[in-house]
Structures are given as C-alpha cells and as structure tokens.
Amino acid sequence: MASFIIRRILLLPVTLLGLTFLIFFFTSFLSPYQLLSAYVQDPRQLQGGNVEKLIDKYGLRENFMIRYGKWLGQISHGNLGWSLSLNEPVSVVIEQRFPATLELTIYAIIPVIFVGIWLGVVASVHHNGVIDQILRVFALLGYSIPAFVLGLLILFIFYGVLGWLPPGRLDQWAQMIFFSKNFHHYTGLATIDALLNGNIPIFLDALKHLISPILTLSYLSWAGLLRITRSSMLESLGQDYIRTARAKGLSEKMIVNKHARRNALIPATTVAGLMFIGMLGGVIITETIFNYPGIGSFAAQAATQFDYAGILGVALVYGLVTIIGNLIVDISYAMIDPRVRLG
Amino acid sequence: MKKSVVFLAIAVLALSGIYVMASSNMIVEETIGSIPTLDPAWSYDTGSGEAIWQLYDNLIQYDGSSISKFKPMISTNIPSEKDGTILDNGKTYIFHIRQNVYFHSGDILTPEDVVYSLERAVIFDRAGGPSWMLAEPLLPTIDGAYVDSIEQWATKLAGVKKFNDLFLSGTRTPKNDKYRQALIDTFNLLSKSFEVKGNEVIIHLPHSYPPFLYILAHGVSESSILDKKWLIEKGGWNGNANTWWIYHNPSREKDPLYSIENGTGPFTLERWTKGREIVFKRFDKYWAGPAKIEYGIIKKVPEFTTRKLDLLRGNADTIYVPRQYMEQVENVPGIKVIKGLPVLSVDVGVFNFNVDSKGNPYIGSGRLDGRGIPPDFFSNENVRLAFDYLFPYNAFIKQVWVGQAIVPNSVIPKGIFGYNAKNPTPFTQNLAKATEYFKKAYNGELWNKGFTMTLVYNSGNTQRQTACEMIRYYARRINPKFHVNIVSELWASFLDDYASGKLPFFVVGWSADYPDPYDFEQPFYSSNGAYGSTIGKNYVEWAKKNMNTLLVKSMKTVSQTERAKIYNQMNIEAHDNAIYMFLDQPLSMHVQRSDLKGWYYNPMRPGIDFYSLSK
User: Fold this and answer.
1) pTM for this model (two decimals)
2) Which of A70, A243, B74, B164 is buried deepest, with most CB atoms within 10 A?
3) What is the CATH number of domain A89-336?
C-alpha cells in the first residue's frame, strides 16, 4: 500500500502542471483586448492611449508560453499571483477561504454519509413497501430540486420567518470578536478556533450559521447516496450468502447490519468520497445564497471576471483536493473490503 | 447524548436574538459592489469611492444635497472671485488650510500635505485611472490641447515616442542624463502650479479650468488629502522631482496605500476583508466632531433575497435593491423607500460612423445589397435620424427601467448646470418620420434593398439587450427587408470588438466624474473624447469642424451662463445631426429601515455617508 500511496503522491505535481498548462493554453486563444477585460470594467478606462498602456503594463501581448513560464517562476517562489477579483494575493485568498469551505464540508459530510446510507438501508429493507416508496419520492425531490431553490426556501423559512438561522459565517457581534487582535486563529475553522479560544458563544454562533447550508447540501446529497446504497443493498440482500445466513437462522438485524450493509458500502463510499471532494472544491450556489465566504464563491467570481491568477489558484486547490481525496477513497476501499488490494 | 443535542440546539437558537441587540451602535449597508482599492489616487469606481469617502477629506465638500454649492472641509474657505481667492480669470485659487486637523495616525495636517497629495495624484497616473482629472488643469497644454497624463510632457521634453523609451528595458532607470533631466523638468512643470504661503495653499493653473473646484471636492477620491510623512514611511513617493517616475503607474500589489489608510476623515479603517466587508470605526478626533455611530459597515451580499431578509430582520440598515425587485420592499412596515433620485449618468446608443470592415461579422456583406451594410452606413445622416425616430423611448423606460428613468435630450443629465429640458426637444418614436428618413437615405436604395446588420450587447446587461431587441422589432415592422440580428457576448469579447471598432451600433453609459457639463460633452463630442475618438474618422472630421472649437471656448470663460449657452449650442448641433441615440438617464432609489436617521441624497456621493447617520 505504501508504494501505491507514494506513486500517487509523486504524480501530483505532474497532474497539477498539466492542469495549469491547459488553462494557460486556453487563454492563448484570447486576443490582448479580451485579456484586457480583466483590468477594464468600463470603456471610459480606455480613453487616450490607455489601451496600449494597459496591454504593455500587464504583458498581454506575450506568448502564452512566456506567461506560463513567468507564472511557474512565481510559483517556485511560493507566489500564486495577484487575484484581480478580490484584490489580494491568491495565497491569502485561499488561506482565508479554504478553511471556511473545509469547515462547511466537514460538518456537512457527517449527516450526508450517515443519514444518506441509513436511508438507503431502510429503503432496501422495506423494498417496495410504503417506506421505500416515500423514500424514493424523497430521493426524487432531492434530485430534481435545484440548489438555489432549496437554499432560498430554507433561508426564507429559518431566517425570514423564524429568524433562527441567519446567513453568513458569523453574526456581526461575533465577527467583531472573531477578527479582533485578541482572538487567535489557529485553524481558520470558526468553530474549532472558538473552542480553542474558550469562546463558547462564538462556537455556538458559528454552528448556527452552518445549519442552513448543511441542510441544503445534505438534502441534495442524500438523494444520490440513498439510491446508490439502496440498489447495492438490494443486490447484497439477493446474494447466496445472505440466503445461507437466513437459513442458519440469523436475525434479520444481524443479516442486514453485519452481512449485507458492509458489502453495500463500497459503491456508497465511492460516491460519498466524490461528494466530499466536490464540496471541498467549493459549493458555489450554496455559498452564494448563504453568503458564506468559501472557495466556491471565490471560484465563481474569479471565473466571471477573468481573474487568471485566481482561476489557477482554485484549480491548484481543486486538483490537490481531488487527487488526495481519491487517494483516501482508494485506501478506504481496502479498509472496508479486505479483498481489495492496492498496488 | 440526546439531552446534550437538545441543549446545543437550544443554545444555538437562543443566540439568534443577540445580533439585534448588538447592532445599535453600528450601521450596516449591504450591497453588491466590490472595493478594489483604498488608495485615493487609484480609485476610479464607486465601491472604492464610498470607502474613501468615509476615511479621507478633501479641500472642500458639497453642501448637503447640493451639487453646485460647496462647504469648507480641509480648506476653511471656498475660493471665489468675490472675496479675492480666485484671481487671474480663474487661474489662481487660494485655500486657507484648517489648523489642528488630525490624521488617524495622530499627525497634524499641514499645507505641504495638501500639495503633496495633489502632486501625487498626478504623478501616480495608473493606466485607466482618474489622474487625468487633475492633470488637465494642473499641467500646461501641448499645442493647445489639455494634457491628460504626465507621460505626455515627459515624452515631449525628452523627444521620445513612448514613455517606456525613457528607461532601460524592464526598469525604471532613465537611459541617460538627458532623459533624467526631462523627467525632472516634467515634474517641475507640475510643481510650478503650487505655492505654500504660511497657512495658505495657492494653486496657479497654467490655464483657466472652470470645473476645477468640482475636481477638488469631496467625492473625487484622487483629490483626498494624504499624510506625506506617514506615506513616505510606508514606502510611498518621497515628494521629490527626481524619483516620481518610480512611483508612476504602479501595479496594485506594489501600491503601499491599496489596503491601508491614514486620512483625516470621520472614520478609521477597522478591518477590510476583501470581497466580503469593510468595517469603519469612529475617529474621535475628527475636526468636525465625532460621528454619532461607532461603526459603519459595508458588506457585499450578492444575493438579493439574502439582502432583503437581512433588512427585514434588522441585520442590515440599508441595502441595494435592483429596480425589478422594487415592489418587494415597497409598503413594507418598518422599511422606507425613496424613489426618483436623479443619477448623474446617461445611457447612449452609439452609431459607429466608420466600422472596421476587416473580418467584421456584424456588417454582413459590407455592401448596401440587402445582405449587409456598408462600413460607413452610420455616416449617413438620414440613417441616423431614421434610427433615432425608430426607437420607442417611453416603452423602453417603462419596460426596462420600471419607469425609473427619464429620456435625455442630450448627453448632459438633468441636475447638472447646462441641462436645458426644452431645447433640444428629446427624440420620441415616430415611425412615419423614421420611414421618411430611411427612404431618403442613399436616394431610396436602402429602402428598396433593405439591410442586414448585427447588434451586440454584453451578456447579462438586460437594458442593452432590450434596446437591441426593440430596434430589431421596429426596423422589421417598418420594412421587412430590414434585418437586425442580435448577439450577446461576454464582456471580454464585447471589449475586443469595441476596441477594434467592429461594432456598428452599441450602447454605452457615462457617469459624472464631477458635476460639470464638460465632463459629458468632452468624452462624447470631442474628436479626442473617450467615445468621440472611437466612432470613426468621419465623425472625428465632423467633430473637429463643429465641436472642438466650441469645447475649447467653453473652458476659456468662467461665466457659467456663457458656458451653458455654448453647451446648449453643441447639444442642438448633435441633436440635429443625430450623432447619438439618447436612451435614458436613470433614477435611483434608496431603501433603508425606518429607524435610520440622517440619510440625504447627493448624486456625487458614492454610496452612503456614515457620518450623517444615526439610529
């Protein structure tokens, strides 16, 4: 297993290089004027000789290979460039925003996995029964409802009507404390840092702000996980060894929990792993609706404003997360099913 | 386990009431714009302008809602000819500098700070920035034309073509002593404009420039007053003639002022989380007395529903509401909506007199054969007049602006002096007249053969999209041989086509840099204007003959009456020749909670003025 892990880690820089090269390659199809649009929001900025001045200043006529070379040179010095959309170094943006997304993902993935798998198991056990039918409708709704509709609905009910769960990452009073000099940021995760600072009100406030996005993400993810778990459970329950177990007189609870569920977990793990990776890459719509300052909303902003440095920074993060995430998923296969050998 | 979960849930929900109690000493504005910089010399957008407004002071300020009356600020007087502080036919201005004004760092403001700030704004001159506003009045003209960048004088004195030719490749080191001297002499031309005499700053303009006081007023960020000593410590320009070019046209990441501040304004910068929120804290030593509130906060909240709910729940005191959602906040208890506030901007349909025909997909065959248009299609006055009569102005305002706009009759928006509602008469839709002019154009050939052209708008801009769709609909209605295609492009592609002169017709807007008609007449009508210079050689030739002289004349007199007459003459000329299609002047609205006190409207103020507000 160790050699497998090392091999995958060694592939990491090659993959990232390929990814960033592709992005630069695509920009080579853009004219200097198109590239200029990242720096110009209003045609009035082009008055006089400003067009040529701006093109010269930002090296927009340079061949994309030269620009790529320069960018690689920057990277080698730990400089990810300057984000035009947020007006600060990309490394700072990532440092500030990734922990927020990570926090949301960690909290969201727990109910997503546990509830999603549990629902799938329940549906399969009650195959074609009333509960199964209800859960299938539930899953269908989860598939069909767009994230922005569900998000807005949750926001409206729990914030607009009940006033319980406000958007954002922290309330204003909590932000004043969270960003004060006396508050130490150990991890960038608001809940964890609040606990480490011994500040329970901020911990609770951060938790309160996480509930709505978690609900949105969970419901949208449950549907997929429910269906996968249900179908693989049904497949497991139809296997010979299950019949043997029944013939041996084992209880239904034991059969489902110990013999069928474990085997059914492999496809569910793959899906859950991919969901986790997807969420870590940023959940654009959920972050936007709940005004949650994560990497997803930054990615959207960078893409719409031609913020190349920002796009490349997000691509690097996403690439890293995908590769490491897949590695973890592969390792978890071996742990769930001893028959799986990595090599 | 179950008990602890229940306890946690109760604790979380109990906390939901705290924010309301905690917000009584702060005012929160939620909007959609970003703040690119806090450096006044870089700022050329409303997001930065609003932040800089709270942090910095200028020499003078507008009196409340007025955009024609001033009040003292860092200067204790408003220069006027009457009291002898404007002399030499508007070429000399005398300012008495207020004493005991503190910067946020604790330094005391001096007249040298004023001179340094204005000089820095000119030498800074980032490409695409606002430096031209101060460069035009403060630098001598070249061949009778205003100089909008200090680079122009440097290249002229050194005898080179481009500013970069003065330096060793890839550096800011002058190539030789001659070039170094030319750079120093350039700065001396600028510094000649300033004199410090005791507590007075005297500005000697090389030529009269009537809008000069507007450019110095609060609201024009680049004229903010900075702390010279502090800025030098932070790595800024040292104020010397022999170094300015190192600090000229910097990149944002190398600008020491982009994310820090040290103004004299009523608020200090508490925190700026880029792309999220900016928090201002009351400055207790403010010369006009401390603000009533302790914190002012501007938050970026892109989603309207989130902003609306924040307003209704009391988490925001004022929010940005797009016009189409106006009804959602009207007649809501506890919410106040103020409508019909004239914005000093105009949206204009631009006819390109000479389209670049090379590889241009928007003009079809490029000939008058029904399958395209000739490149100089809009050089034909009858064609332009026909289009001006074709457009359904009132329907456009009603449909696109929900009635919250007016039809302009020229490039001067209502509210600025020189605006004359009666003359010229705004165009209104008249399909009979449109038909008449289409028939006249090209001696009837256009009417018989028809045309095909493509209109382009930048995607997401529904106003521009609807304008194009309305033109298509009515063109087809009066003659089925008139084919107008519509294409939506990303901003990058739109800009590409715009800059390369390929668009036959497009819609643009212009907002006031300062409330003087020159700021509108020059960009649209001058042959060197931001738009005038880009709409084809036939227009440039026409403007040289008909507009440029009038523009120059308008800047040689300080009499507002005389100037208003000149601008009116230009507007009539432009109207009669159908140079542009004047689409709309938007009316803005303000939405706030009813308990917010002290808000007032001034169209030159970017965003809100936290200093005037309380709850």
Assistant:
1) 0.88
2) B74
3) 1.10.3720.10
